[in-house]
Amino acid sequence: MQSGTQPEITPDTPLRLADAVKIAFPLGGMTVAGLRRERDRNRLVIEKIAGKEFTTLAHIERMRELCREEARDFSSRLPAETRPKRSLTRQPGLSETTAGMSAQAALQMRLRPRRKS
After folding, report:
1. Is residue 31 in some structural domain?
2. How many domains does the chain fold into?
3. What is d(CA 7, CA 3) in angstroms, rounded to the nearest whole number?
4. Is residue 76 included in any domain, yes or no?
């Protein structure tokens, strides 16, 4: 048993997702939920052992490579002149009453019984 020393973490050491986030992204920017989204997009290999999810630093590095390749592929497929442009005018169909209103407030407004005039 090692007392007082940290175990050596190699690129193939299985890490819980929370620990992997802390080690692979020490300045933040990635969360456990983000790693799970990458798993669902088939860009991150995750092992499920005894109901717990593990990954390795090598798997995270591969995920990052796949993300870079996808970003490069996407930008090369769309020439600048065919990229969608943002409109500065309002989109048709938007209601002024719900603009700037939270989704919950809009739902509550719709669920209120209508008053008879």
Report:
1. yes
2. 1
3. 10
4. yes
Q: How far apart are CA 54 and CA 30, in angstroms?
A: 16
Exposed, middle or buried by CB within 10 Å (0-12, 13-18, 19+), for 21? buried
Question: Does residue 114 lie within any of the structural domains?
Answer: no
Query: Is 70 strand, coil or helix?
Result: helix
| Residue 70 backbone phi and psi in degrees, to 5 | -65, -40
Model confidence over 48-69: pLDDT tens digits? 999 999 999 999 999 999 998 8
Domain interval for residue 63: 15-80
Structural domain includes residue 55:
yes
**Cα first-last separation, the chain:** 80
Four-point Cα dihedral 20, 30, 32, 39, nearest 10: -90
Q: pTM for the whole thing?
A: 0.58
In order, the DSSP letters of 3-63 are -S-PPPPPTT--EEHHHHHHHH-TT----HHHHHHHHHTT-S--EEETTEEEE-HHHHHHH
